[in-house]
Amino acid sequence: MPLTDLPYEDLLEYRPEPAAPEGLDAFWADTLARARALGGEPSVTPVADALLPAFEVSDVRFPGYGGEPVAGWLLVPRGAAGPLPAVVEYLGYSQGRGLPLERLLFPSAGYAYLVMDTRGQGHDTPDPHPGDPQWFAGLMTRGVESPERYYYRRLYTDAVRAVDFVRGLPQVDADRVVVAGASQGGGLALATAALADGLVAAALVDVPFLQHFRRAVEIAGVGPYPEIAEYLGLHSREQVERTFATLAHFDGLHLASRASAPALFSVGLMDPVCPPSTVFASYHRYAGHKDIEVWRFADHAGGRSSQQRRQLEWLRDRGLGAKA
Where is the Acetyl xylan esterase domain (predicted)? Predict the structure, then answer.
């Protein structure tokens, strides 16, 4: 696969500086305050899984956007002395929480671990907002006519509320909660680090989606961004600008400057789904301490297991590793 974007040397200097939408901070402060005010009791139901004897596995539900229940799996190393550092992981586009045995890396490394189901994408968390207009099979245009109704307003809120939930668990050290994810999950991790600034100890942001929307929609050849391009191709110039005005409220390019937790990014220079320039654009604007792993010959899979090992080392070096 060839390079899909700018040469590496140009990526190091790629620093677009578009203005954030007016009222961005107030929009998110109001959104999250409303979700938290609705409250709702989480549930943690132990699951007996004889195939995973090394872990305590629980099926959880916590209140997300609108107080609506969001599913997840909670895995804790059996017999571990708490409080433990925790990892909250968000998933890629069209993925749900799956089965617990698919998500063993972080609990195997000694972390309390929550994987959040993705509303409207996983099997266990519906998105009960059928009135929102949607033009394609995917979710990128659902409610895109306004920030208030856009699908990702609900998903970003779920992601922040997942951190609220984990910080309240008795097994967890609330000062050592890490957010993580790849692709869409990486975009959610970055957004959560910004929107829950002060509540997140670190962010693992792999090949992130939902960055620098305008450029991504123009150059991404495959993946979810073309859903937006196809939609825009059917509408007037006025609708184009209104769409990008909505997307700006969810763009990691604007949210990155609002995050102070240390972050480890990764990027594949042959990624056709999340173009490298969009990743570097947000990376350069990220306000906290940041590092980036550049995989020169990787596509959207990034560094695979090598990146996972790097994540564990990076967390350990920052005092966020689990005790042996």
Answer: 1-317
* 319-to-74, 201, 204, 260 alpha-carbon distances in Å: 22, 10, 15, 17
Q: Is 183 a catalytic residue?
A: yes
Is residue 211 a part of any domain in this protein?
A: yes
Mean pLDDT of 113-123: 96
Q: In which residue are the tokens 């954030």 written?
A: 20
- Rounded Cα distance between 25 and 258, Å, is 9
pTM over 0.90: yes
Full residue range of the structural domain in which residue 225 is found: 8-317
- 172-181: average pLDDT: 98
- What tokens appear for 279 in the block? 């990743």
Catalytic option among 271, 277, 282, 284: 271
The predicted-structure confidence for 206-245, as pLDDT tens digits, reads as follows 999 999 999 999 999 999 999 999 999 887 788 899 999 9
Count of domains observed in the chain: 1
User: Per the residue annotation, which of 5, 129, 183, 284 is the catalytic one?
Assistant: 183
Q: Classify residue 216 as left (phi > 0), alpha (psi -120 to 50) or beta.
A: alpha
Mark whether 271 is an active-site residue. yes
In a domain, 123, yes or no: yes
| Domain assignment present for 323 | no
Our answer to whether residue 43 is catalytic in this structure is no
